[in-house]
Amino acid sequence: MADAPHVMMLAGEASGDAHAAEVVERLRELEPAIRVSGMGSERMKAAGVEVFFDSASIAVVGIVEVLRHWGEIKQAMNIVKTRLEQQRPDLLVLVDYPEFNLKMARHAKSLGIPVLFYISPQVWAWRPKRIRKIGAAIDHMAVLFQFEEGFYRKAGIPVTFVGHPLVDKVRIEADAESERQRLGIPAEARLVGLFPGSRRSEIERLLPLLLDSAEELYRRHPDLHFLLPVAETLDHETIEASCRSRGLPLTLTSDRLYDVINACDAIASCSGTVTLEIALLETPLCIVYRMSWLSWQIMSRLITIDHIGLANIVGAGGAVRELLQDQATPVHIADEIDRLLEDQSYREGVIEGLRKVRRNLGEGDGAGRMARLVLQMTGKQAHGAQQV
Questions:
Q1: Per-residue pLDDT tens digits for 49-99
Q2: At 151, which helix (H) or strand (E)?
Q3: Which sequence spans correspond to the domains of the chain?
Q4: Does domain 6-164+363-378 correspond to CATH entry 3.40.50.2000?
Q5: Which 8-state DSSP code applies to residue 144?
Q6: 285-289, strands of its sheet edge to edge
Q7: Separation CA 189–CA 276 (nearest Å)
Q8: Whole-angstrom Cα distance, residue 354 to residue 213?
Q9: At 273, is the secondary structure helix, strand, or coil?
Q10: Using CA atoms, how far apart are residues 1 and 245, in angstroms rounded to an integer?
Q11: What is the CATH number of domain 176-359?
Q12: Whose CB has fewer CB within 10 Å in the chain, the N or C terminal residue?
């Protein structure tokens, strides 16, 4: 159709690719004729996006990694700029990946193309003065967390709280007993989850630490069993070999993450989105975080908030203990897991804190709310679509 809107969408990492694909799927339900092109990867392709640059080659984190892949990143920038100039979409939607996407936002604005940013940079955590530059580069911000809305309203930037997609996604298929049975875990064992993360750098930093902590816990409680989820992107055989050398009663798994979380009595986890998934299932946890000494010295001076774990930030409190840097030792981690297992009053207090997370993540249908906002901003809203 000649009057069907054209939306260009840019996502630079796997998580952004998944978020973008969910929004596109909802967009097509509301406006089947919509055209969506952009930068993304497999999930966006599967959703029917005309992907003109595969972002898998530039999905990197860290200064060194960015410098190593600068050629591909620069190429992607040039391709996006050319597409914007030639095609003039009705709306540019930027999904996370802020350093890259804000440069593309400024270029789009110079061409008179409206810009909607989805998934806010963490201005509430570090470099808060960036918010003015962000506001100058975009027309509207769509945020996942309720508390973020106030930051942008205070700065005079149009903002919509759409809610977090996890509210709809975090669902269990089996009860804890059935999941343990499926995994071959003894019925009488208490189960502790070890969640080192899904990035190779996280595995290198946290897996040995969590295995040391498990050894300390096992010395104290021989009835414990351990469970370690391994992301599909990681080398399962290498991780399995590292675990086998410890002689622990430990099971590795690569599927049904939410059932795995629900089956655990307590979890020692890296920081990040997984802490929200754990919180939504109300499994008590502690958060473990380590980085290089130099990186920590820099980051600790930039951070402007009291907590780094999303479960604590979104829950608006410190219900979950964070063991950071020098505090992240096997004994300290074991002590905290021990307390979550043995102290019922403390355990219930942590669970009550986790319940606040769900309340602060919205009512669900985050992708649908985002899709309706996209259509509103194209000025070609589908007939009968509700306002956000």
A1: 999 998 877 765 555 556 666 778 889 999 999 999 999 999 999 999 888
A2: helix 146-154
A3: 6-164+363-378, 176-359
A4: yes
A5: S
A6: 250-253, 224-229, 190-195, 266-270, 285-289, 322-324
A7: 26
A8: 23
A9: helix
A10: 62
A11: 3.40.50.2000
A12: N
